[in-house]
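job 3f2a | input accepted
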Amino acid sequence: MSASNGQQTIDPERLDHFMGQFVQDLGAALSVATVVIGDKLGLYKAMADGAPVTPTELAERTGTEERYVREWLSAQAAGGYVSYDAASESFTLPPEQAMALAQDDSPAFIPGAFQLAASLVKDEPKVAAAFRSGDGVGWHEHDGDLFCGTERFFRPGYIANLVPNWIPALEDVEEKLTSGGLVADVGCGHGASTLILAEAYPQSRFVGYDYHRESIDRARASALEAGVDDRVSFEVATAKDFPGDGYDLVAMFDCLHDMGDPVGAAAHVRSALNDDGSWLIVEPFANDRLEDNLNPVGRVFYSASTMICTPASRDQEVGLALGAQAGEARLREVVTDGGFTRFRRATETPFNLVLEARP
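job 3f2a | predicted structure (359 res):
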């Protein structure tokens, strides 16, 4: 197609390729609500045994209406989330999909991510307004599904990695926690990471801090339910004013880049640690150059950062807005500017940078 009137030349093949990508993306976007519904109504769990089920049978199992269930199952089959047998007109949830969609403690559990994504659609008007004004949108201003979805999205990764891999990768930390240490989990949200550590290291004491009171209330309830409230507490505080000192470990999981003044937070962590203490920083995986993050994982994190992380930072003092793809070099600069002299990548996953800073 030739150019005219100063317009750029259009390559039909490239346009067709992009439109094909668009259809895939649109299908994925529209699937967000259907996955949230399947999770909320227990539809996936009702299929987790792997037995074929008709829409009528699934509706009876879940107390839902057959016509809606039939349409939902058809959408799930078109997306490859369930399989369909035309001869019996039945649907099956394969074991791999069941692991990802129906098992809450599975390391592959993903409905929380869809719940998180659904919340961002609801919050689009607030973020769009911030684009124009330059103001921030605080974490506390988001739809409530963001808080629950974030916990459910990150918790499986913490279960799979925190105690088996991340703590052992730190210098002398596992020994301290086994014998009895003092730990601050800053930016703890609903307390999933705090409780996982507390259950693994019963000799240690843990305090979770977050500025969001509703999340702290939820974390306290979870500690009571888990039976660890005698050595785990949760308090409302920010990363720059959480109380106490003499901590053997301060941990921050996927939150340093959200802070308005991460350098100030680093300085406060430095003052709160023992002289031989450690700061565990878990951040979204990112390379240092933008061009090296232009991939599916980077797409997820840049999109989340546009809607959550950058607005959250801009809502706070300084508003440095590191973003979820800050990368190790930028994080090193923040940490050392805060007074730490040692900084290293302890380990990593495809989704996480696991960093250790020491005085």
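job 3f2a | The chain is about 50% helix and 15% strand.
job 3f2a | closed
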